[in-house]
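For the sake of clarity, the format in which proteins appear in this thesis is described at this point. Each number in the token line that follows is a code from a learned vocabulary of backbone shapes. One such record is shown here in full, so that the layout can be seen directly:
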Amino acid sequence: MRPNVIVALVVGLVLGFAGGRAVTGPSVAALTGNKPAAAAAANAPRPNARPVDPTVFKVPVEGSPTKGNADALVTLVEFSDYQCPFCSRANATVEQLQKDYGSKLRVVMKQNPLSFHPRAKPAALAAMAAGEQGKYWEYHSKLFANAKALEDADLEKYAKELELDLNRWKADMAHPKHTATIERDQALAGKLGANGTPAFFINGRFLSGAQPIDSFKAVIDEELGKAEALVRSGTPASQVYAAVLAKGVESAPKPAQQAEAPSSPYRKVDAPADSPSFGPKNAKVTIVEWSDFQCPFCSRVMPTLKQIKETYPKDVRVVFRHQPLSFHPNAKPAAEAAMAAHEQGKFWEMHDKLFSNQSALDRATFERYAQELNLDMGKFKAALDSGKFRAKVEADAAAGAAVGANGTPTFFVNGREFVGAQPFPSFKKIIDEEMARADKLLAAGTKADDLYAKLIEEGVKSAPQAAAPAEPAVQNIEVGTAPVRGPKNAPVTIVAYSDFECPFCGRVLPTLKQLEDEYKGKVRIAFKNAPLPFHANAKPAAAAALAAHEQGKFWEYHDKLFANQRALDRASLERYAQELNLDMGKFKAALDSNKYDAQVATDMAESTRVGVNGTPTFFINGRSLVGAQPVDAFKRVIDEELKKKGGTVAADQK
């Protein structure tokens, strides 16, 4: 959830690494895909798919779980992690690809349980042990369908459900050969440069992350064409994979060492007075850090920050801002607990405790840390219970997204972007450069209190203008059964993917109302559900809204939900229905029977297929517009679409 320049915190998001940084990738997995129409259509070029490196890597498949024919013309090798949410989403994409390509596609699974996912390795061992009894893929599916339930008892339950021989299964889990397989797969992943999950090699070509299904199909179609040519020239189908890899490379090239790193871009970055900080307010260098208490890379940078504090006690100020990533469920509560400690003057002490105990970030632990710090427990608990600092945390996250801090940790040194948990010498280099800039401004008469603002201003002015990013491809999105407001034949259709618990989704409502008023009869709005996983009440609220839709009151109910985003429990959902004079028996029955769960799931699947990485996201005649943007941003796209259709622009722009 993001305003303006939204980028995925969640749902959008491939877990990878960049300079020791937890990042959100280019897009989430496509959960569904269109079935191929005809062979010609299936093999047609996909101009909107993102380009992929043509390098072919030698990726062995022997000794790994395989699904598909040995003579399949395309082999997809996946490096995955059963606790990674993006891997589970990508799994749905892979399953759809298998349906679409049938015997032409073979899937091979490699294990890469990431170190900060404590249940990923036990899950991988459990799956391989199930494979000893011929049930690897069935167990694999259960793991991805239950990625949040991977404790020992859960793993045993799945084994029982598959009617495995439990004693044999447990013995196989403990067999050292499976641990050796994991280590082999992880070493291969590192050798090939596949350092995050999920990672795919399609006939040896690397595709990183849970990308939209069309990105996969673009590569598969291209490789199919090559493979078919090999078969026509006499290569047996069973030998195509070996033939394709014959001239491939063994490993990814090591990153070239640069004598001089390119200058980082400057951003206009605020350092709010109410944000925790250390160092003088009028320091020569201000470092604004966006961080996440559950991110392992953020904790690794702590010694570096300590060294900065000791080395530059009078010249550097560090300001801490929150960027809890969507796939870290405990990061947001931890951020609120840290701010509750900040209220009592103990932010940095709580900060250190949280980062030193990243596997223990539940409410009871927050309270224990607060007691250890001798905080006023009544005040601390009240702050957490009331959500007193929730808005501050979300505002920090939104501000981070707006300046491009889409992963953690991200730093801005006098507004100069510096990404990842980098070593002290890397920080020192940029700090010293910025101190030199500061000294020049001070010598020229800039007052110390005005220094940070002046440094930012000068840095932004000196930065080269970046080329405008290309607009994303137009998506074909059907309105289907979604609630709609506006005439069916309106020349412009806005499809909104939204979350009833997302504050930014609520903030955009006045903008949409203004658009409906100004473009009366020319715009219709369709609502689709994209409840984010860290909003516990968003999915039940979505189902309740559809239950109200069944009785012709969707938009009235929609308005009530957004007006009461902190009261979305079952009792409140029923109260809003009563206020709208709905048939309560019918409404309750719809909720009790989970009648609309499938429609919500369908909306969510479609949202990932079309690349929705956060809420709100809009598609204006298929053109994406991300975030609670100002009305003029919507008008620009609407007016362009109206001109295409021979319509007119809004009255105030004629």
Summary: Residues 353 and 369 are 7 Å apart (CA to CA). The first strand starts at residue 15 and ends at 17. The chain is about 45% helix and 10% strand. The chain has a mean pLDDT of 85.
